[in-house]
Write a structure and sequence with these properties.
The protein is about 45% helix and about 10% strand. With about 270 residues, the chain is of the alpha/beta class. The protein has a single domain (about 1-274), classed as Rossmann fold (3-Layer(aba) Sandwich), CATH 3.40.50.970. Helix 1 packs across helix 2 (about 25-45), helix 1 (about 1-20) runs antiparallel to helix 10 (about 255-274) and helix 5 (about 120-130) packs parallel to helix 6 (about 150-160).
């Protein structure tokens, strides 16, 4: 687990490099969601380049598709994609490495970008797998700003209606979106009780703590008769004071000076965990 903790910061560095090369990207949410992706892909899910077409694989949907740069970095680490190719081609004219997930690429199940679609699609995947008697699981990552979309709540209703205990939704609760604080744009408190009232098992954890995430995913797998939602309380821009808890870093390309400081800060985290 200590290796995975250091790896999460190394993959943040890779993510920043992808953004710098491409000249754009949603860096704040990339940084906040990294431990969730590392936990799922490198410690949890039954998914790999070797079994990506196996109907019994676990399914993952990146509903907050604007955080695709972190997704690219993790898929590269998992062996689905080549990092140097992604970095050199990201966001270039005619490239398949676009600014949101592209299901023409290995390892990506669904195109996303228009927020609010991931949970309903995941409900459909989970229901189909359950009807077919499969034992696999479906995971979907949403942003907290995304919760303003009505289709999300239709997904919550149907997920509990069909008792989809093979479904786990994760909310990247970093409390910031492009317009500012989520609580100023569309308040979500008390989010725990709200989702629980829809018939879900709800867990609230530190979403930048891999140990806490591991325990939460274990609890989700052990929960029967209802789907689970993990509220992952995270820090937008996690890893450097240059970015942390700043709405202006929702979509931002670091300057040369900012890049140097961010990389220095991320290296300090890696050193402390190594």
């Amino acid at each position: 687990m200590s290796n995975l903790k250091a790896l999460a910061y190394k993959l943040r560095k890779d993510t920043v490099d992808i953004i710098m090369e491409g000249g754009g990207g949603h860096i704040g949410g990339d940084m906040s969601v990294m431990e969730v992706l590392v936990s799922l892909y490198l410690d949890r899910m039954n998914i790999s380049p070797e079994n990506q077409d196996d109907p019994d694989r676990d399914f993952f949907i990146m509903s907050k598709g604007h955080s695709v740069e972190a997704y690219y970095a993790v898929l590269c680490e998992k062996g689905f994609l080549d990092f140097e190719e992604v970095k050199s081609k990201f966001s270039k004219f005619g490239s398949q490495y676009i600014g949101h997930p592209n299901n023409k690429l290995p390892g990506m199940e669904m195109n996303s970008g228009s927020l609010g679609h991931g949970l309903p699609v995941s409900v459909g995947i989970s229901l189909g797998n359950k009807m077919n008697g499969r034992k696999n699981r479906t995971y979907v990552v949403m942003g907290d700003g995304e919760l303003a979309e009505g289709s999300v709540w239709e997904g919550f209703m149907s997920g509990s209606m069909y008792k989809l205990d093979n479904l786990c939704a994760i909310i990247d609760r970093n409390r910031l979106q492009i317009s500012g604080s989520t609580e100023d744009v569309m308040a979500h408190e008390d989010l725990f009780q709200r989702i629980k009232s829809f018939g879900w098992h709800v867990i609230s954890v530190d979403g930048n703590d891999l140990d806490a995430l591991k325990a939460a995913f274990d609890e989700a797998e052990a929960t029967k008769g209802k789907p689970t939602c993990i509220i992952a309380n995270t820090t937008k821009g996690k890893g450097s004071a240059v970015m942390e808890n700043k709405a202006s870093w929702h979509h931002h390309v670091p300057t040369a000076e900012e890049y140097e400081q961010i990389m220095k800060d991320l290296d300090e985290h890696i050193k402390a965990l190594s």
